Task: inverse folding
């Protein structure tokens, strides 16, 4: 009887281990698996599901996969439309249109002095040089300065090297990660991508126990930049942990007036109208707009009111001007 019990226990343990192994997250991930899901395949439904976008896996540098990158001519192999390429003059004209639209549609939108604009451009270029890929076409970057004395974002028009002068369009107040509160992380600096590896979502508008809508009112866009390492703001030694880095709206009744100060748990918080401006113009939805031609999940996330700007990119650039000599406002 004792031997039978031992045998049953061993079999049970093996069964549990087998189940865990079958559900384990792969140790490596090839983004080409995602792109294959966008290809035409006769005899299959109109789209093939991409691997689980919520799986816990590290980001794979999209631009290193030259043979399959949607930023190269090979996009035609997948039946996807090419990204728009604007001339320098066309890019400046579109940037001017968006600047006017920003002032018109976003209350409390910020415009900066010429000197301050130069600082935004320099911060963006420095961070892109350190951690970003070469810019391959005229496009907009969303640049967020996490400096506690700044807490703002700016839209920066970026060009490939030697093809145009980078320009700052203007922006607005944000809130990034706070310190001193348990489980509040410091928003990491770097270049983060809105790619087809992950699918964002829209806020449900539900309230927590304190009556706060964490992602803003219902329908607000949430951009998902994946798992990232961030400093634990509540620890003196700033030990690092992983957070799901997102950019989203905040509660318009209770928290929006606090924008301009560090307040989040690590994400980038936006005003409602700024969220809508980014969403309705597809500012960092270049890849989503391409993928939407083959996969309904991407089109379902994109705004129904979208007027896709040909300057759309896919990058959130987080900087910290307090680390430079130019940390003071102009």
Result:
């Amino acid at each position: 009887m004792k031997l039978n019990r031992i045998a049953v226990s061993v079999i049970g343990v093996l069964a549990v281990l087998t189940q865990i192994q079958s559900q384990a997250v792969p140790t490596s991930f090839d983004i080409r698996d995602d792109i294959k899901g966008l290809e035409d395949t006769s005899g299959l439904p109109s789209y093939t599901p991409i691997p689980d976008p919520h799986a816990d896996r590290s980001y794979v540098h999209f631009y290193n996969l030259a043979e399959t990158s949607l930023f190269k001519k090979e996009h035609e192999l997948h039946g996807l439309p090419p990204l728009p390429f604007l001339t320098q003059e066309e890019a400046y004209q579109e940037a001017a249109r968006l600047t006017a639209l920003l002032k018109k549609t976003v209350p409390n939108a910020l415009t900066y002095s010429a000197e301050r604009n130069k600082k935004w451009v320099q911060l963006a270029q420095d961070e892109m040089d350190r951690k970003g890929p070469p810019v391959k076409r005229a496009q907009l970057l969303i640049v967020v300065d996490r400096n506690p004395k700044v807490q703002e974002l700016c839209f920066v028009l970026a060009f490939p090297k030697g093809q145009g002068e980078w320009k700052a369009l203007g922006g607005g107040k944000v809130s990034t990660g706070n310190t001193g509160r348990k489980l509040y992380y410091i928003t990491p600096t770097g270049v983060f991508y809105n790619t087809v590896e992950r699918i964002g979502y829209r806020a449900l508008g539900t309230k927590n126990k304190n009556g706060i809508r964490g992602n803003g009112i219902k329908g607000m866009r949430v951009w998902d930049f994946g798992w990232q390492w961030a400093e634990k703001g509540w620890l003196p030694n700033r030990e690092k942990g992983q957070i799901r880095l997102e950019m989203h709206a905040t509660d318009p009744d209770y928290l929006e007036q606090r924008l301009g100060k560090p307040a989040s748990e690590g994400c980038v918080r936006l005003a409602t109208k700024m969220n809508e401006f980014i969403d309705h113009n597809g500012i960092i939805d270049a890849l989503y707009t391409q993928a939407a031609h083959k996969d309904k999940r991407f089109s379902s996330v994109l705004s129904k009111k979208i007027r896709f700007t040909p300057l759309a990119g896919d990058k959130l650039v987080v900087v910290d001007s307090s680390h430079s000599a130019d940390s003071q406002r102009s």
The chain has one domain: 88-323.
